[in-house]
Write a structure and sequence with these properties.
Number of strands: 5
Structural class: alpha+beta
Strand content: 25-35%
Largest sheet: 5 strands, antiparallel
């Protein structure tokens, strides 16, 4: 490879079916990302972790109404969060899928992965994120 980075490894996938049209789910997803995942709240954590971008995530790819890829990195991890929106088999329903990819280099990365991923904290956070987007879609 000529300077290209290998994409981070697949970690997990979570999905939810939302009783709302696709365009409303897309709007709720974008709003959530802009106000929560990509908003710099200041404080010491971004400085301690050395997050890039400082807020933690930035849009790296967007296919309106279908897919939103967010990426970021810090001292202990390099990560990508991919949201995909599909029509659900349920009438007037939309499926929202969140896939996480990440690498955790070195011994500090291993410790960080143990604390964040292996404890189940990450999975709980992603499920809550999807539920919040679902609620906003139906509001």
């Amino acid at each position: 490879m000529t300077g290209e980075q290998v994409p981070p490894r697949f970690i997990d996938e979570h999905r939810i079916t939302i009783g709302a049209p696709r365009d409303r789910v897309w709007t709720a997803l974008r709003d959530y990302c802009e106000t929560t995942l990509m908003k710099d709240r200041g404080g010491p954590l971004p400085l301690l972790l050395g997050t890039e971008p400082r807020a933690g995530f930035a849009v790296s790819r967007e296919v309106r109404g279908r897919r939103l890829d967010l990426t970021g990195r810090h001292r202990f991890s390099r990560y990508r969060l991919v949201f995909e929106i599909r029509d659900s088999e349920a009438q007037d329903g939309t499926e929202l899928i969140a896939r996480t990819f990440a690498d955790f280099p070195g011994p500090q990365g291993f410790v960080y992965k143990t604390l964040v991923i292996r404890t189940g904290g990450h999975a709980l956070t992603v499920r809550r994120m999807l539920q919040s987007i679902g609620r906003a879609s139906r509001a």
